[in-house]
User: Which sequence fits this backbone?
């Protein structure tokens, strides 16, 4: 349940999960094994700042929504591959986004002084992404980066076209026999 402040409005995620002090200890760097999530608004700002090509798409366990997140190295503009680890923005043990105003909320919040509190933040961010605004940003990112085209199988891409009403139709190929 979201706590309410004196103005009787629900606390924002930024208010509920405030930033931690900067730290590069072993525990805090260990959080970078799996990239943290932005809020939908933060991810939109990161896209606008030119970082779209360094993001990946994580799908919810039930595959009902996606989250545009910092990529595992090697997963840029792709689905998250959980066999990989690390963050594309972690270079030489330091976050390139730190202090830029673009560091994900989950990264700013998680800290060695808050053990066990990360899953609550992660779940709250997931709820925010499971929204019309979250889905719209996923679609915008996918169009901007060519994500959809990367998913097309070469044989299907060559044999399909967009028909009336924007629906994909199959075109007939000459029989090679």
Assistant:
């Amino acid at each position: 349940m979201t706590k309410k402040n004196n103005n009787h409005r629900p606390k924002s995620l930024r208010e509920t999960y405030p930033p931690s002090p900067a730290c590069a200890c072993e525990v805090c760097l260990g959080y970078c094994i799996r990239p943290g999530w932005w809020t939908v608004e933060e991810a939109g700002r990161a896209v606008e700042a030119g970082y779209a090509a360094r993001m990946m798409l994580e799908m919810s366990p039930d595959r009902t929504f996606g989250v545009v997140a910092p990529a595992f190295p090697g997963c840029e503009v792709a689905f998250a591959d959980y066999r990989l680890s690390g963050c594309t923005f972690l270079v030489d043990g330091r976050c390139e986004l730190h202090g830029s105003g673009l560091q994900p909320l989950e990264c700013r919040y998680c800290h060695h002084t808050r053990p066990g509190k990360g899953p609550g933040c992660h779940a709250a961010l997931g709820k925010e992404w499971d929204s019309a605004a979250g889905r719209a940003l996923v679609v915008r990112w996918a169009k901007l980066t060519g994500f959809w085209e990367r998913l097309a199988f070469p044989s299907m891409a060559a044999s399909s076209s967009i028909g009336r009403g924007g629906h994909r139709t199959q075109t007939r190929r000459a029989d090679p026999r």
In short: Confidence is low (pLDDT under 50) at residues 156-177. The helical segments are 13-16, 26-30, 40-51, 105-109, 118-129, 132-145, 147-151, 154-159.
